[in-house]
């Protein structure tokens, strides 16, 4: 063997050895990623509830998850109260509070906003939606038959003022020009999902109220037109739409177009 080639041969052997070590290390990291892939079980009251933005986050991110409602979950945990929902079982650990669940998942999958200030703005919008949900919940509970109250009084004194107040705030955010077509220039965030979910719910039973807020209506249409959500929307459980149908039957009589007309006349 030519002695002059010895240094080159040794160098090639070292390179091959290093490459093998890198490949082994990369394969090991890949196996770790696969083994550490998070497992999610979402437990909520029904298939259309406060946990819907969480479902949208996971679906948009392409993450598989188990969607378990109260009727099924109580067979495993008979003492659990529906007041505790939604819950997220994350790799065997239980996380409560809907906002905390959605915020964690948004951060995990890049849907929490870009930078500290934008993230704070995203959280502030989600807080408005939370206030809107809390204010309108008594009305939804009455319409769906969970509680018996004075529907007309709740609508006029609580539901309608709350919708107008909070949707006016959300409309101001949606009025601002965004390069992404969503609430923020950086792209879609979990605030878009939260707003769209609530807008869809209210618009399904009171379109006459939501017609005053064209920008958040348009935002909702954009969100639910996302290609990543189409399969989920087309296959989500029928109870979701059944709830809206029940609301409509309860609210709309054959001779009136909407509850607003009934109460305002």
Automatic annotation (TrEMBL):
Keywords: Transferase. PROSITE patterns: GST_CTER (PS50405), GST_NTER (PS50404). Residues 38-113 form the GST N-terminal domain. It catalyses: RX + glutathione = an S-substituted glutathione + a halide anion + H(+). It comes from the Eukaryota. GO terms for biological process: glutathione metabolic process. CDD domains: GST_C_Sigma_like. One of its GO terms (molecular function) is glutathione transferase activity. Pfam families: GST_C_3. Its EC number is 2.5.1.18. Transmembrane segments: none annotated. Belongs to the GST superfamily. Sigma family. This is glutathione transferase. It comes from Panagrolaimus davidi.
